[in-house]
Amino acid sequence: MAHADDAIHGATLSFIRGAMKRPLLTREREFELARKWRESGDQTALHELINAYTRLVVATASRFRHYGLAFGDLIQEGNLGLMHAAARFEPEREVRFSTYAAWWIRSQMQDFILRNWSIVRTGTTAAHKSLFFNLRRLRARIDNGAGPAQLTLEQKGRIAGELGVSLDDVNEMEGRLSGGDQSLNAGVGEEQDLEVQDFLVDDRPGPESVAMDDHDRRLRLRWLSEALGELSPRERTIIAERRLRDEGVTLEELGKELGVSKERVRQLEARALGKLKAALERRAGTEAEVFGTA
Question: What domain range is 273 assigned to?
């Protein structure tokens, strides 16, 4: 394993040295290479464009080193971002490729950090992403480096306002960042005979509840099927189209299909629902028992 780590470390250093030696491109050369790649798929032009800005990958990875992830992994993610930038760059917009690529590189690394910083998902919304990468900086600025145990409500409000997020988002992210991952097998108590997982409550229904729910569900489905069998074909069509679909059709649409007015469809639907209710009550005793509301 040590030899593998050394090889990875050596490869990373070699990449960094090579990136820093490559000359930057002029605006004109950037656009020329980008057009060649975009219009004719020139692989040589693509490689020159990408290689010229691997130094951006190294610089951005250096900014994110304090998150505890391998520097080589950050560089790999940054290279992916650089390739995405090259694939999507539009020279006609008159924006420097270096500026465009910097955004893609940073975004790719940030997503990687969010996925791997903790075994618990830190958050995927724009608000959570902004808080993850800015909360510590803003907190240090607000409390002048004093580092209080907990931010005051006023301080949290200032952070929320500056980042354009809600106060709930600030509270949630502060809680996530203040505690690290903990093994479920960690000992609890002085003698540590118990583990953290021993105190976790399984709130899922037990086998008996699952069996009863499944029995009730099957019984209600049988009742409904038998009740539908008592309706006329036209009434069953109306109930199926209006009540048994995720998005029921309108009265007007169904009226056109059946060759009647939408008011007539409404009347038929009301009559069919009345028949279903009566049929179900005969089978179950009360409507409350049918729908589990007793």
Answer: 207-290
Single out the residue in 73, 97, 117 at which a domain terminates.
Answer: 117
Residue 271 belongs to some domain of the structure? yes
Q: What is the pLDDT of residues 229-274, one digit of tens each?
A: 889 999 999 998 888 888 888 888 889 888 999 899 899 999 999 9
Beta strand 187-188 with 194-195 is: antiparallel
- Rounded Cα distance between 278 and 292, Å, is 17
Contact 21, 52 (CB under 8 A): no
C-beta neighbour count of 241 within 10 angstroms: 18
Residues 112 and 2 reside in one and the same domain: yes
Provide the residue type at 209 as one letter.
Answer: S
Q: Given CA atoms 63, 65, 71, 73 in this order, what sign does their dihedral have?
A: negative
Task: Provide long-range contacts, Cβ within 8 A and 24+ apart, for 229-234.
Answer: 230/275, 230/279, 231/272, 231/275, 231/276, 234/258, 234/268
Residue-wise DSSP of 139-203: HHHHTTT---SS--HHHHHHHHHHHT--HHHHHHHHHHHHS----TT-EESSS--EEGGGG----
Residue 198: inside a domain: no
What pLDDT, in 10s, does the model give residues 45-102? Answer: 888 888 888 888 998 888 887 777 788 888 989 999 999 898 888 878 878 888 899 9
Q: Is residue 169 part of a domain?
A: yes
The predicted model scores a pTM of 0.44
Same domain, yes or no: 237 and 169: no
Across-strand partners of 195?
Answer: 187
